[in-house]
Design the sequence.
């Protein structure tokens, strides 16, 4: 049996296949009936697809069985090559959290008490908002509050 493709390699293969086929992330999400942000994260290695969903994506993008199999494997979430990624878009998200994270933490504790926002029971939404000074990126992080129980 051929060795399985790693989730990281599968993500790069998916990106290339999507580029070659011209299939959009939104079209893939629609085909499997999942949220676009979740689908992109899954196809880049952060979630596992069901066999049925991996089959649909595989057909859309012309993926080999080894890649479809890799898309079904459980991931090591949050794994980057370096502690702070150098990609400008991802780095800016780190920068925003570095600047505003402590304030957000304080406001969460003031509003909800001692606890955290879940990244497991979690949704993300990305929208474009037109603005005369230049279009804005609106990112909504929607996580369940989990209180610390002692």
Sequence:
């Amino acid at each position: 049996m051929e060795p399985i493709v790693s989730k990281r390699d599968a993500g790069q293969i998916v990106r290339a296949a999507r580029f070659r086929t011209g299939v959009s992330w939104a079209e893939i999400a629609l085909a499997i009936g999942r949220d676009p942000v979740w689908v992109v994260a899954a196809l880049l290695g952060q979630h596992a697809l069901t066999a049925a969903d991996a089959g649909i994506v595989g057909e859309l993008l012309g993926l080999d069985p080894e890649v479809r199999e890799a898309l079904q494997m459980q991931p090591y979430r949050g794994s980057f090559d370096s502690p702070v990624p150098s990609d400008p878009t991802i780095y800016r998200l780190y920068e925003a959290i570095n600047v505003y994270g402590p304030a957000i933490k304080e406001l969460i504790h003031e509003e909800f008490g001692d606890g955290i926002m879940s990244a497991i029971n979690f949704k993300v939404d990305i929208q474009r908002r037109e603005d005369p000074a230049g279009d804005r990126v609106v990112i909504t992080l929607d996580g369940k509050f989990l209180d610390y129980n002692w």
Remarks:
- DSSP finds six helices and two strands in the chain.
- The longest helix spans residues 88-112.
- The CA atoms of residues 109 and 115 lie 7 Å apart.
